[in-house]
Design a protein that fits this description.
The chain contains 9 helices and 13 strands. By secondary structure, it is an alpha/beta fold. Helix 6 runs antiparallel to helix 7 and helix 7 packs across helix 9. Bound molecules: zinc ion.
């Protein structure tokens, strides 16, 4: 792997920032991980996802440009290494770490990924420096993705239930309990929040109307698969249709198609 450009720190709204890769490419995803969302409060930084373990010092340096306070809380949107690779180091630094109970189970099955200190089921309301953080567990990309609603900032952190660049397609992880049927209804639940900005797991931050267009695209894609699967279309036919009509199904997404067809039949 060649040298990848450094991620950048971008302001979102109301004390929320995101540390995102310079480009939404698979090479940068492998090197740096997904988006990390930063919420600055008077009681310390709340971090949603950590990027890769090797970026720990870079991450701390970037946070130092925003606040003198340390990382108080780390919330993982799910158990994958591109989102939680820095967890153990941040925990050793003194941060308290949180993941859903369902994705904690996924972490425990993966040697070396460590495990968060706090696991919750359903929902969890945190208050840091007077700011509310509403965590909610939603089935979709994995068996227990966490979304975070930050009402003061009107920002929703969505993890890998949403990705916003075609170069990093949204997928479900069947091994970790993901499901396309569940992901589709998860997007319906996300739509109920009155947010100005949504931070996806990968790719640029989007507005509410951009999110609604994304949801529409996924719904159209799944409807197409439903129709084709019921006609007993071959995997190749489905793959070709999705690529031509939705620019989805190449690269990482190709392996998702058989499971998707089975689920939607
Ligand atoms: Zn990811």
């Amino acid at each position: 792997m060649g040298e990848q450009p450094q991620p950048k720190l971008t302001e979102v709204a109301g004390d929320v920032h995101v540390i995102e890769n310079a480009n939404p490419s698979i090479g940068e995803l492998i090197a740096n991980g997904g988006n990390a969302t930063v919420y600055v409060t008077d009681e310390g930084v709340v971090l949603f996802d950590t990027k890769s373990a090797r970026l720990h010092d870079f991450l701390i340096e970037q946070l130092g440009t925003l606040t003198d306070r340390p990382v108080a809380l780390v919330v993982l949107t799910h158990n994958h290494a591109d989102h939680g690779g820095g967890l153990q180091q941040l925990q050793a630094d003194g941060a308290t770490t949180i993941v859903s109970a369902a994705d904690r189970e996924n972490m425990l099955r993966q040697p070396g990924s460590g495990s968060a200190q706090i696991a919750y089921s359903g929902s969890l309301l945190l208050t840091m420096g007077g700011k509310e953080i509403h965590l909610r567990e939603i089935h979709g990309h994995t068996r227990g993705d966490t979304i975070a609603w930050l009402p003061e900032a009107r920002v929703l952190v969505a993890g890998d239930l949403v990705t916003t660049a075609d170069s990093i397609p949204v997928i479900v992880n069947y091994e970790d309990g993901g499901s396309w049927v569940a992901l589709e209804s998860a997007l319906g639940e996300l739509a109920e929040y009155d947010f100005d900005y949504l931070v996806p797991g990968h790719g640029p931050v989007i507005t509410k109307s951009e999110f609604l267009a994304f949801r529409q695209k996924i719904a159209g894609m799944l409807e197409r698969v439903r129709t084709l699967a019921r006609e007993d279309a071959s995997r190749e036919t489905v793959a070709e249709a999705l690529l031509a009509e939705f620019n989805w199904g190449g690269g990482l997404a190709a392996g998702n198609i058989p499971g998707m067809m089975q689920e939607l039949k």
